[in-house]
Task: inverse folding
C-alpha cells in the first residue's frame, strides 16, 4: 500500500499527488488514498475483519471452510487491485475540459468538455459518510460521457463541484455577466454563501409522505377491509391487504429517506438541492438547463396547502430508485406559495402563477367525470401551463422555448364534443404537460404556434447562455 | 404571485388565453363558428397550406399484406373443412369472418393512408395522421436531433421508405411512412440542413 495518511490529505486542496504539469495548466491529481478501501466496500471490510479475527484467535486454520492461506492471498489480490485502480485513476480540471484517466489493464483517457456539463452531484454513500468522504458525479447532455470521481474528502468534493460549475458556466457563456468570478488556473474560487431557500423538518416530511395519495388509499382500503372482515367474520380480506400495506410503507420510507434533511439553497449558479438519510446527495439545478417544472398536489396536501415541486433537467437520469426521486425533486414538501416561488426561480423568473388558466368546458365531463373539474390550461409568451388530476393534481409548466415538439390529439368522442388534447413533448423526466379536453379550434391554433426557439425578447438573453444574473422575483410576463 | 392556483376557481371573468389570437373572436357565436369549422372535413388543416400526401404504394403494401394473411387463413379454413367434414360449418363461418374483416381492413387502409400528410412550414414540420384517432405533430426544425430513413424488406419490395425526425423528447412522433425512397432521402437532407442551421438543442 502507499502508506499515505488520510488525515494529512483531508485539509488540502483537491488532490496533492501527481506533480506532472500539462499544457492545460492544471495538474493531474489522484483521488484520496482511502478510496480503494471505500470502493471495495463492506465486503472488503467484512473479509478483513474475519481474517483479522482468525489471525488473532488462531484456533483454526480455515475461514468459512477456506484454507487461510487462500483467503489471505485472495484478500491481498483484492486490496492490490483496488490500490492499483486508485493508483491509475487520475483527473485534471483544465480551463475547458475535465480529463480523467482510469483503468488498470484497459486504460481509458477521457476528456469532458466543460460547456457540455449538465449537472455536478456530490454523493455520500453510507461508508463514505462515516469516513467523511464523498464522490463527485459529472453528468453531460444525454447522459453519455460521465465521470465519477470516488472518493475525495467532503470539503474537496464541494470545492471541486463549485469550481466545476463555475468553469462550466464560464465555458458555456464566454460573456458571462460576472467574468471576474471565474479566473482559469486559480483553484477553487471561494464558494459564495448560498442563501437557504427552504428546509424540510423531518416530522413534516414524514407526515407529508404518509398523507400522499398512495398511502392514504392503502390505509383507507385497510380500514374498510378490517371493518368488512369484522362485520362478516371473514378474516381473509385482511391477509390480502398485508402486501398492499407493506408496499405503502415501502413508498413512505423511500420518500422519507431520499429527502431527509432536505435543504434547498440558491447560489450564483442556480438552485442547489441537498438531501438524503443514508445516501446524501448534493445537486445543482442551473435554470438554463431546466426543461420544465411540475407542481404536484395530492388530495390531502391540497387541504393542508402543501405541494411538491419536481423538475426535468436536461441530461439528468436517475440511477437508482432513490436517485430518480431526488434528482427530479426540487422541493419534497412546502407551502403552496413557497412552492410557486421555487418553481418561478427554477424557470429563470418566469412565474407560472401569473399564467391565466382556462378550465376545460363543462362538456368535458362526458370524457372525464371525476377529473374534469381540475382540467385547465393556459399560456403566455413565455410559458405553457397545464393542470390535471384529482387524486393527485399536477400542474405542469414548460417554457415555450424548451418545447421539443407538441401533438394535438382527437379521438372520435372528443371530435363529437369539439374537444381535443394537446401534448407538450420534453426530454424524459417527471414533467408531462398535457392540455386535456380543451375546445378543439383554439387548441389547434395554440398547437401550431406553441414551440418557440428562443425565449421571448423581454428576457434579453440569447438561448443557451447562462442566466445567472436574472432576478427570480420579477415575472418575465406582464 | 401565489394566487394562480385559485384563479381557476374564482367566480370572476376567466380569460380564455387559447383564443388570444386575433383571428379567433371572443364572442360565443364566433367561437362556435370556429369550432364548427374545426369539426368540419379537415379539422387539422394548416392555414394556407395543402397537405403533402404519402405514396399510394403504402396502401398497396398494406393491402397486399392483409390479402396475404387473409388468403393464408382462408386456405387453412378450407383445408380444415376438407379434412374434417363434420366441422365444415364452423370452418366456413371462420372463412367468412376472415373475408369480412379483411374487406373492412382493405377499406380502412385506403382512408388511413390518405390521412397521412405533412406540411413543411418555415420553422417547423407539421405531420398529421389517423382517421378515427387524429393526431397533429408540430416539430420545430431547431429541435432536430437526427433524421433517419428506414426501409425494411417488404417496404423495399414495394419501393417505399420511412423518414423519421427525432428530437430529444421521446414523445415526438414525426415520421412519414410510404414515401418513395428518393423523396425520403431528399426530405432527410432538407430537414437535416434546416435543423443544423436553426439548431437550438436543449
Result:
Amino acid at each position: 500500500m502507499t502508506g499515505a495518511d488520510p488525515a494529512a490529505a483531508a485539509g488540502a486542496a483537491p488532490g496533492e499527488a501527481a506533480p506532472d504539469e500539462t499544457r492545460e495548466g492544471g495538474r493531474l491529481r489522484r483521488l484520496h488514498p482511502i478510496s480503494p478501501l471505500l470502493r471495495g466496500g463492506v465486503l472488503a471490510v467484512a473479509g478483513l475483519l474475519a481474517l483479522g479475527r482468525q489471525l488473532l484467535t488462531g484456533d483454526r486454520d480455515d475461514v468459512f471452510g477456506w484454507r487461510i492461506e487462500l483467503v489471505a492471498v485472495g484478500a491481498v489480490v483484492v486490496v492490490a487491485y483496488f490500490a492499483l485502480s486508485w493508483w491509475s485513476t487520475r483527473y485534471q480540471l483544465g480551463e475547458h475540459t475535465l480529463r480523467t484517466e482510469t483503468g488498470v489493464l484497459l486504460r481509458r483517457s477521457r476528456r469532458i468538455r466543460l460547456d457540455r456539463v449538465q449537472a455536478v452531484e456530490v454523493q455520500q454513500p453510507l461508508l463514505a459518510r462515516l469516513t467523511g468522504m464523498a464522490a463527485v458525479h459529472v453528468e453531460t447532455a444525454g447522459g453519455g460521457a460521465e465521470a465519477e470521481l470516488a472518493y475525495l474528502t467532503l470539503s474537496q468534493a464541494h470545492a471541486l463541484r463549485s469550481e466545476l460549475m463555475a468553469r462550466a458556466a464560464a465555458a458555456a457563456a464566454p460573456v458571462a455577466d460576472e467574468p471576474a468570478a471565474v479566473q482559469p488556473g486559480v483553484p477553487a474560487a471561494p464558494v459564495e454563501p448560498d442563501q437557504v431557500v427552504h428546509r424540510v423538518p423531518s416530522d413534516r416530511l414524514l407526515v407529508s409522505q404518509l398523507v400522499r395519495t398512495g398511502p392514504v388509499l392503502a390505509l383507507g382500503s385497510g380500514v374498510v377491509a378490517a371493518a368488512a372482515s369484522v362485520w362478516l367474520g371473514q378474516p381473509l380480506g385482511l391477509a390480502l391487504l398485508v402486501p398492499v400495506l407493506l408496499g405503502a410503507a415501502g413508498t413512505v420510507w423511500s420518500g422519507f429517506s431520499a429527502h431527509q434533511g432536505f435543504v434547498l439553497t440558491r447560489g450564483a449558479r442556480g438552485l442547489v438541492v441537498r438531501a438524503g438519510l443514508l445516501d446524501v446527495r448534493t445537486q445543482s439545478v442551473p435554470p438554463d438547463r431546466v426543461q420544465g417544472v411540475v407542481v404536484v398536489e395530492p388530495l390531502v396536501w391540497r387541504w393542508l396547502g402543501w405541494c411538491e415541486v419536481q423538475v426535468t433537467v436536461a441530461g439528468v437520469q436517475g440511477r437508482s430508485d432513490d436517485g430518480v426521486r431526488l434528482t427530479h425533486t426540487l422541493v419534497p414538501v412546502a407551502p403552496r406559495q413557497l412552492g410557486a416561488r421555487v418553481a418561478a426561480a427554477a424557470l429563470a423568473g418566469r412565474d407560472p402563477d401569473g399564467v391565466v388558466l382556462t378550465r376545460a368546458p363543462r362538456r368535458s365531463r362526458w370524457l372525464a367525470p371525476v377529473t374534469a373539474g381540475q382540467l385547465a390550461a393556459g399560456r403566455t409568451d413565455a410559458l405553457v401551463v397545464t393542470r390535471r388530476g384529482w387524486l393527485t393534481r399536477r400542474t405542469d409548466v414548460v417554457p415555450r422555448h424548451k418545447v421539443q415538439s407538441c401533438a394535438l390529439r382527437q379521438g372520435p368522442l372528443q371530435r363529437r364534443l369539439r374537444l381535443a388534447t394537446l401534448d407538450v413533448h420534453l426530454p424524459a423526466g417527471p414533467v408531462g404537460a398535457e392540455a386535456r379536453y380543451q375546445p378543439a379550434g383554439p387548441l389547434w391554433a395554440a398547437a401550431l404556434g406553441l414551440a418557440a426557439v428562443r425565449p421571448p425578447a423581454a428576457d434579453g438573453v440569447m438561448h443557451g447562455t447562462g442566466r445567472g444574473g436574472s432576478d427570480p422575483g420579477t415575472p418575465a410576463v406582464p | 404571485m401565489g394566487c394562480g392556483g385559485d384563479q381557476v376557481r374564482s367566480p370572476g371573468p376567466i380569460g380564455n388565453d387559447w383564443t388570444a389570437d386575433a383571428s379567433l373572436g371572443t364572442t360565443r357565436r364566433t367561437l362556435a363558428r370556429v369550432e364548427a369549422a374545426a369539426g368540419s372535413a379537415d379539422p387539422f388543416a394548416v392555414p394556407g397550406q395543402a397537405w403533402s400526401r404519402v405514396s399510394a404504394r403504402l396502401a398497396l403494401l398494406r393491402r397486399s399484406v392483409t390479402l396475404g394473411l387473409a388468403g393464408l387463413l382462408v386456405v387453412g379454413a378450407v383445408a380444415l373443412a376438407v379434412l374434417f367434414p363434420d366441422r365444415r360449418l364452423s370452418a366456413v363461418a371462420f372463412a367468412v369472418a376472415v373475408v369480412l374483416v379483411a374487406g373492412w381492413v382493405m377499406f380502412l387502409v385506403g382512408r388511413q393512408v390518405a390521412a397521412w400528410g405533412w406540411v413543411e412550414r418555415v420553422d417547423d414540420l407539421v405531420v398529421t395522421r389517423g382517421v378515427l384517432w387524429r393526431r397533429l405533430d408540430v416539430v420545430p426544425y431547431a429541435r432536430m436531433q437526427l433524421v433517419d430513413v428506414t426501409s425494411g424488406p417488404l417496404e423495399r419490395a414495394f419501393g417505399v421508405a420511412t423518414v423519421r425526425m427525432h428530437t430529444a423528447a421521446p414523445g415526438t412522433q414525426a415520421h412519414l411512412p410510404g414515401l418513395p425512397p428518393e423523396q425520403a432521402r431528399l426530405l432527410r437532407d432538407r430537414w437535416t440542413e434546416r435543423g443544423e442551421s436553426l439548431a437550438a438543442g436543449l
